[in-house]
Amino acid sequence: MKKTGHSQQMLTFASAAKGDATVTAQAVARHLGLSVSTIGRALADDPRISPATKTRVREAAESLGYVANEAARVMRGGSSKLVGLVLPDIRNDFYATIAQALSACCDREGYRLALCITEDDRELEARQVKELVAARVAGIIVVPTANPRREALAMLCSLPRVQLLRNLPALSADWFGIDDEHCMQAGTRHLLDLGHRRVAYIGGEPSLPTGAARVSGFRAAFRGAGVDPASAVEELGSTTVAFGAQAAARLLACGTPPTAIITGSVQVTLGVLETLHARKVAVPDQLSIVGFGDPSWFKWWREGLTTLQMPIEELATACGLWFLNRLRSKSVGQRPHASITRASLVIRGTTAPPAKTSSITMARVAIGTTKR
Amino acid sequence: MKKTGHSQQMLTFASAAKGDATVTAQAVARHLGLSVSTIGRALADDPRISPATKTRVREAAESLGYVANEAARVMRGGSSKLVGLVLPDIRNDFYATIAQALSACCDREGYRLALCITEDDRELEARQVKELVAARVAGIIVVPTANPRREALAMLCSLPRVQLLRNLPALSADWFGIDDEHCMQAGTRHLLDLGHRRVAYIGGEPSLPTGAARVSGFRAAFRGAGVDPASAVEELGSTTVAFGAQAAARLLACGTPPTAIITGSVQVTLGVLETLHARKVAVPDQLSIVGFGDPSWFKWWREGLTTLQMPIEELATACGLWFLNRLRSKSVGQRPHASITRASLVIRGTTAPPAKTSSITMARVAIGTTKR
DNA sequence: CTGAAAGCGCTAACAA
DNA sequence: TTGTTAGCGCTTTCAG
């Protein structure tokens, strides 16, 4: 930072050229022999300030390295430019995509994201939310845990908020999500149509709104196809890689293993694939599988993973735009708004009709309606 | 939130039970007939306050839903509990892992992360950094762009800071990174040892510190093995999926395509794999490939991708711990500290000796020192 | 067109 | 053990 030579006020001690002590509007004012309010107004482009003064102020501010103190502005009653983003796990492709899209939205409107990772732990979530409130964030975008603490709910409800994917009525917040039930039904239907009967669903606990909807879609497919649900298997647990891997191992080990598996979470899918890979299970000859979500590498798993694909990025962008608009206009709809995005089944190479015998067969049927 | 019945001060209008107007320490004080400072001290667990009052205050604060205003605290001179995390792209597994690890660190120490995604755009970076300074963050953890703007550098240098992966001397900041040059040399060496001569490197521009180090390691391997570097091919560009895909396509299309490719970025690797998959290139029979980084799905690409693996999570955790410690103790080392983490070559199924003829051969040699 | 001053909510120095 | 008060840096009346 070059020190300007204009030594109009070199008498005033520590006139902000000290280097480290943060430069305040006061300092700029002294430097120019003006008052603080003029500085503030000039920088806010107030029409009452003469163009000449404005440029003078702007240049001085620039050269002194003045950066407005947002804390002070917030304290005056203005809400901050910080938006809380509360989600379970940023390594999950789902949430990374969401964060990226929201970050782009926020950036365009001058907002920043405070990233809070809950690991689906309600205590952690409560702490994080409290901190966000303390920081006086403008609002919160949240993928809530299955059962948030009462305090967390109360705090969330005291701010502008929107929920993503998981829809908790207790939050009475607007929601952007996917048609969990229908897409899971479509995926299951695909397997039933291929002739599978012993179909297993591995997914999140039904205490999660999404978990409940997905397992419900799974069951609905059986009813819809007139198939006896007795042959359906359900493994419900945490939406983690570990759970997926264990559940798949359990299913493979049992006396009459399923001929097809459908998963209800990206992480669970990962775990299942890991187990199938480790055990060298022949897919789809011995076992068909339908995944959940569609990170880029799903198409490289064996001949390509048949999966339920959802436009997460679009979903997040829609959510971000809508939320920021609401923040700015303060408009609060009476009933929470709900926006549902449709998912679609992408058929690749991991689903086929079941083998006639329980051993590995040579049959390898090519299917290909939505092949991509 | 239940309203407590203690109507000691029901006369004071709007005694904070109004529901929406944020509850201040003042409000709690009035509610209890105490002074603000007593409230502040009680909540700060000051020894001068009687235990009885402390509990009384704490309960009242709780039931009224009081949350301290951090902006006010910051304005009094305390630094905020916000740490800026500036990185190019959160969908990149590298950076997602880093964010996750740092978030865990910060959370443990009561800090929060402000996520800023630069997309490797220096203008965007400059804007984000300025906003972080305006927000009076306690410090910044940054993966800088190749060539940050002068203003951005100046601002960064005015705060506690640490750089990850990319090491820019201009920042004169502590750095946590990997031994880019050596690991790339090892990967290339592996290919040369297998007998490859026409080896291609596809990676980031040398304007990036990491890009420069990696390409330099690539070249060093040739020198080290006494192989004529004339047969080496270099494709340097942006560290994106698109560039990787295009570069690979270009290499395959040329008259005498390389018999092996080594990549210098996770995203580039993704692009290359995409092209190889689309063109149905026989790997490793027709072409050997060494990837960069090790997201979980690399081991599922064909027979498993041979790759340069680095303990990113440990790196980020080390960085976070060290940085937060520095923030708290204000200790500033004279010379910037540099911490280098070693990467390792993981040999899986995508590297083999080159085919004798230019066409596909049947030879498929199993290699397996570090197989995993 | 510009200046003076109040006040946002909190902490810490000074009183009692 | 508790109360009073000044002041952090900014915006925003109200006065010139």
Please describe what this structure looks like.
The structure is a homodimer of 372-residue chains. In chain A, the strands form two sheets. A six-stranded parallel β-sheet of chain A has the order 2-1-3-4-5-11, with helices on both faces. In chain A, strands 7-6-8-9-10-12 form a six-stranded mixed β-sheet, sandwiched between helices. Chain A has 372 residues and is an alpha/beta fold. The first copy, chain A, has helices at 25-32, 36-43, 51-64, 70-75, 93-108, 122-134, 150-157, 180-193, 209-225, 241-253, 266-278, 312-329, and strands spanning 82-87, 112-117, 139-142, 161-164, 174-178, 199-204, 233-237, 260-264, 288-292, 306-309, 338-341, 344-346. At the A-B interface, helix 4, helix 5, strand 2, helix 6 and helix 11 of A face helix 4, helix 5, strand 2, helix 6 and helix 11 of B. The structure holds a DNA duplex (16 and 16 nucleotides).
Q: C-alpha Rg of chain A, in Å?
A: 28 Å
Mean pLDDT of chain A equals 88
SS-derived structural category of chain A: alpha/beta
* Strands of chain A, count: 12
> If strands are numbered along the chain, what order do they take across the biggest sheet of chain A?
2-1-3-4-5-11
Shape of chain A: elongated
* Quaternary class: homodimer
String of helices and strands of chain A: HHHHEHEHEHEEHEHEHEHEEHEE
Tell me what portion of residues of chain A adopts beta-strand conformation. Answer: 15-25%
- Uncertain regions spanning at least 5 consecutive residues of chain A: 1-19, 358-372
Largest sheet of chain A: 6 strands, parallel
Question: Could you tell me which chain pair has the largest interface and how many residues each side has?
Answer: A-B, 58 and 58 residues
Cα(first) to Cα(last) distance of chain A is: 55 Å
Instruction: State the helicity of chain A in percent bands.
Output: 25-40%
How many helices of chain A? 12
